[in-house]
Amino acid sequence: MINIRSLLVVVLASLVGACAGMSTKPAPATRAELAPTGALRVGIFTGNPVIANKNKATGELSGTTVALGKALAGQSGVEFVPVEYTAIAKLVEDAKTGAWDIAVVAYDPARRTILDYAPPHMTVDLTYLVAPGSSIQKVPDADQPGVRIAVARGAATGLLLERTLKQASVVAADNEPAAFDLVREGKAQAYAQNRYMLLGLAQSLPGARVLDDRFAAVELAFALPKGRPAALAYVSAFVEQAKTSGAVERAIESAGLRGVRVAAVAQ
User: Fold this and answer.
1) What digits encode the pLDDT tens for the residues 89-112?
2) I need a surface site. Which of 31, 37, 149, 193 has the fewest CB within 10 A?
3) Which domains are delineated in the chain?
4) Element of type H or E holding 66
């Protein structure tokens, strides 16, 4: 028979070890690679509410990237410094200049020449918002000659559709609001983005619809500029802990995100 007291000691030791693992600070060399300026500069894209939001009245930044970025900075023992972006193409481009240390973007292999990715922490469906009066009922209906699909320049949705569409054309705008405006102004028949974002936008355009099916499920992940292997390993471990501890789920719930899921834990 198992000794109950011994079992309790083992369980307690496991819990203590798990808690310690969640608060492990990086070695000095790793911290220098993670936060070379002495602060963790987190690139925050406010054009996608699944990633982050900005309060127009106060300027305050919030959302999943802010919550998890602050947690990572706190665990690392460095200051959290947000670096706001309204255009995803600019955020990705700035990885080359070292303007930020970590950021959350949708995983796409086309970005691997610039970015290194930690394991994904969130998953969300990608679909279309279609213009009022559109005959498009399902995702395959959009891939027809003459159909113009709006995307934000540099967005993972556009990168994916450029590889997969057979007949429809992709029209890139400078940012997400400008892409939506192409549909509003009749210059595109559909706008491609994540379902949560599109459901909110549809309310501002009477007659617009968000399709029930999807053309992909995108994974969102912390990314680092190329060439920071120790920092990447540390962030990857942080992400896996955040998923198993419930921190990612709490960040999603706090942001009120519908249809956004915690990514599977890496095996």
Assistant:
1) 999 999 999 999 999 999 988 899
2) 37
3) 27-123+220-262 (3.40.190.10), 124-217 (3.40.190.10)
4) helix 64-76
